[in-house]
Amino acid sequence: MADSKYVSAPKEPPPSYETTAQASPASFLPKSPVPRVPLPLELPALIALRGKRVILASASPRRKLLLAQLYQIGLTKLEIIPSTVPEDFPKSLSPFDYVLQTATQKATTVYAKEVNNASLGEPALVIAADTVVVSSIGQILEKPRSEAEHISMLTSLRDGGAHRVYTAVAVMSPLESARDPGYALETIIETTTVIFDKDISDDLILSYVKTREGADKAGGYGIQGIGAILVERIEGTFDNVVGLPLRATLGLIEKVLDHHDELEDELAGDDEED
Length: 274
Known about the structure:
It is a single chain. This protein is of the alpha/beta class. The chain has 8 helices and 7 strands. Strands 1, 2, 3, 4, 5, 6 and 7 form a 7-stranded mixed β-sheet that branches. Helix 3 links the parallel strand 1 (54-56) and strand 2.
């Protein structure tokens, strides 16, 4: 009787070295199944927007990627039209006011540009967002302007304890009535607290700066990329730090469309009374 710890030899001869050399390396890897695309969410607000113009008033590649998830859940006609108005509100404003005014300006600017678009028609929805990073002492952090400033910025975030990331989202929808203001507007501000690992070394900070990943980001790091290595933990939503809180954005879409319907009903009632 054969010892159970031994496996019987295969009947087929082993492949020759020639055959092995000619075979593609990928042929030896297990074939992974093709991922299934999720079905869209069957929510009234998303159903009402299918096939209609929905505009993201931002050039941020991170927000494009996040909003692509909203495409998967039901928004099928997304357009990217960034606002071209300078974002030059004074930094003396509170972080809340600064980020809210910037996001609202982006939304209203793109809405005014596209509402009378003769070829494509008015948008059903305009979504705008703005994100700022605020240090532990309340300073609004811009994108680093040099390598030295980038190192200093990340070092201060490590040494300063918790910092906060604020994202304001503004959503607009046109009203069928011509009465002022002619649109429904809803806004929200989401806050996430970020704590850097206090034990990260100066060498790690310098090495991260050299990657240039955070050079085009407020606060100087990208939590969705290599920059995650700097972060110990967050309190709040991850996608808010990236630049667009999806749960809050979806809630805002539902709210502005509900508000849109309520305003239309009120205006219709006023017309009947007149």
